[in-house]
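Weekly sync notes, structure subgroup
Attendees: PM, AL, DS (notes)

Item 1: joint prediction request from the bench team. They want all two components modeled as one assembly rather than separately. Inputs as received:
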Amino acid sequence: MNISRECYLCIYKQTLNLTKRLGLDENKASEILRGVGGILSKYGLNVTPPEIAAEVYEFISKATGIEDPFSKEKEAAIKEALKFKDILKKRLEESKDRLYDACKIAVAGNVIDLGVHQEYDLQEELRNIFNINFKHNDYDVFIEQLKKAKNIVYLGDNAGENVFDEILIKELKNYVSDIYYFTRGKPVINDITVKDLKGLEINNLAEVINSGVDTPGFHLNRADKKAKELFFEADLVISKGMGNFECLFGECEREMFYLFKVKCEVVARACGADVGDYVFLKNDK
Amino acid sequence: MNISRECYLCIYKQTLNLTKRLGLDENKASEILRGVGGILSKYGLNVTPPEIAAEVYEFISKATGIEDPFSKEKEAAIKEALKFKDILKKRLEESKDRLYDACKIAVAGNVIDLGVHQEYDLQEELRNIFNINFKHNDYDVFIEQLKKAKNIVYLGDNAGENVFDEILIKELKNYVSDIYYFTRGKPVINDITVKDLKGLEINNLAEVINSGVDTPGFHLNRADKKAKELFFEADLVISKGMGNFECLFGECEREMFYLFKVKCEVVARACGADVGDYVFLKNDK
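Output from the run, pasted for the record:
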């Protein structure tokens, strides 16, 4: 999915917010906003949003000397998400359709974007999650394909969200033997990396894969050879979150299921939904 | 007043909005957002916001071939403002302090920023205007100086607002013989120019001056020789609106009175007020 005009401003806004979150002084903030202005000036409409974001966040890391500017936020988001795990598992035990409800739990986790600032939203999100309706609900096709599958590639998204993915993955394990949980190859925004998952249960349920991508979304050209092979050879691919959708939608022929919450107008237009909608969409091959 | 980090984003946001208002297609919008990214990348913190805005809006004019992108909005804002003129004049006739209330009317006009999109706000603004309290209320000093003055330079701001300035200027004419109403030297955003004032009553009350500035604020270095002379020799200067404040506050030694509504955090911080406050501030010489 290529960028739209709004993406330039969105990335610039993220930059300003980050200069504040990192407590940078006005001079450093100005240096960064000038640098990002220069980066934005280079990109036409023929790129995906995460490709620009990758260069922008790498520039910010270098200019500040902070390799992982969101490390604290990521840690806090995972900690926060873990608080809900037992309650959600209990809710699942009472469920009449465990797999479907686990999909809903996983997509609810997608509300986490910068974790700690959205605690209330997460709680609210989880309260209502079993009553939501998916836009583009391709769950029936999904379950048919799942029954025939032996392995799954699951493209992870943000830190914190992984806890809810874990609940869905546990259910998926009743159907398939192998699940590959893809993470980013290096810290970018608050996206999940192998390091962030250390000590978590998901390591016992799935094979955690460092995809190699430095983009906040699974961009094929940036992926490791092994990750690419697994991706193309998998019986089933679940692409979680907006960043992965932005990198893959319209850019990749292989069949997959997108599972995410729509958080901006550009993605809403691209997938024919409204901001706030939950999407369970099988791409047209 | 120099820019803060927020100004970069604000100008970029204005750019995006303008690409939409002008109905530009995605390719043209991208070209403009890239160009403005490049412009922003050049400016450090040692400039006023209107200096960057001047380059940005000139670039947009050239890139689109539209010399005055806000001409329709300006015309509509003046038309809208004129609807309120008789009502406000009548309210003034019943006033116990005509001059003070006329100052309030003038500052209420400062709510107009892009005119037509804010019709309801203008109506609401005018409904409550006589009950407002000024932040930094230097009206008492102002009236003392007015009683001794023979002429006034009045720095105009946006189109539409001029109608309310006119009401104040009519009152000021009871005190002084000569009033110079300064406009911008060329179209920039929705700021008032000599051309926009054609046929309006203000031409009979004040001498309308083309200040020569191409910035959306009275920037001394950009002003004509004559405008500069009038400005420095005037017995009293009223600087209307945020753009003029941004260009002059802390940049110019001469005594003057700033009259405006605070519309952003950066200006709020600079003048020690909150967003939404009305300011009647004498600068420290």
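Discussion: Chain A touches chain B at residues 4-6, 8-9, 12-13, 16, 19-20, 26-27, 29-30, 33-45 (CB under 8 Å).
Action: AL to compare against the crosslinking data before next sync.
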